[in-house]
Design brief:
Layout lengths: L2 H23 L1 H56 L3 H107 L2 H42 L1
Length: about 240
């Protein structure tokens, strides 16, 4: 197979899939079209059956007519013989034989046509039954289609709620909490790096050192004063 032949087969495959999906999505229209087509064929078949029935009835009428004529000739023949009407009797005998042959032929043809008529009527009834069956199938299959579509929609909704929506919600919560934590950390870091805070700490340390220095100086002065007083006492003694 050549290149173009393979390409044609590929396109045929795509087209078949496309048509299949299109038919599935328009199932009701496809069923209606099939039912309408069968109804049309049923009408055509009914016309054909009516033609066969008409022929059967016509043959039946001809047979009865021939049989009645034969009955009349059968009654007339003895009378002609008794009255010595030989020529009339011969004519009646010839008609009798002809009618016998015609009746036999008509009976043979009538049996065939009657059988065809019965088969055609049976087929017509069966075909009508197929149409009714297809109508019931249409309702059943459309109900199944609607049920399946509803189940798929519900499942997709449940899947969306149980996975995508929940995961998005949790991710949003986690992200929000992390942002709040980051804001808190930034505030703490900025507080540690604040210049005013550093100056205040240095001021506190300086004040503490000055107080300690003054305390030491006061201790030295008090010690010197005590030592001086102790010296005066010794001299007096």
């Amino acid at each position: 197979m050549g290149f173009f032949g393979r390409v044609a087969n590929v396109w045929k495959g795509f087209l078949a899939l496309f048509v299949s999906d299109l038919e599935t999505n328009n199932a009701e229209a496809v069923y209606e079209s099939a039912i309408e087509e069968r109804i049309k064929r049923h009408r055509d078949l009914k016309k054909a059956v009516s033609g066969i029935v008409y022929l059967r009835n016509k043959l039946q009428g001809e047979l009865e007519e021939k049989q009645n004529a034969l009955t009349d000739i059968t009654k007339q023949l003895p009378v002609a013989i008794e009255e010595g009407e030989d020529e009339a009797a011969l004519v009646l005998i010839q008609k009798k034989d002809e009618l016998g042959v015609q009746i036999a032929e008509i009976q043979t043809e009538l049996e065939k046509v009657s059988q065809q008529a019965e088969e055609a009527k049976s087929g017509l009834v069966s075909f009508q039954g197929e149409i009714e069956k297809l109508k019931r199938e249409k309702h059943e299959m459309l109900a199944k289609k609607a049920n399946a579509e509803a189940r798929i929609q519900i499942q997709e909704t449940l899947d969306g709620l149980s996975t995508e929506a929940d995961i998005r919600a949790l991710d949003n919560v986690r992200e929000g909490i992390n942002k709040l934590q980051a804001e808190a950390d930034v505030g703490s870091e900025l507080a540690e790096d604040d210049l005013d805070a550093k100056l205040e700490a240095i001021k506190e340390k300086t004040a503490t050192a000055s107080a300690k220095s003054q305390l030491e100086e006061m201790k030295k002065q008090m010690a010197a004063q005590k030592a001086a007083q102790d010296g005066k006492v010794e001299k007096t003694i």
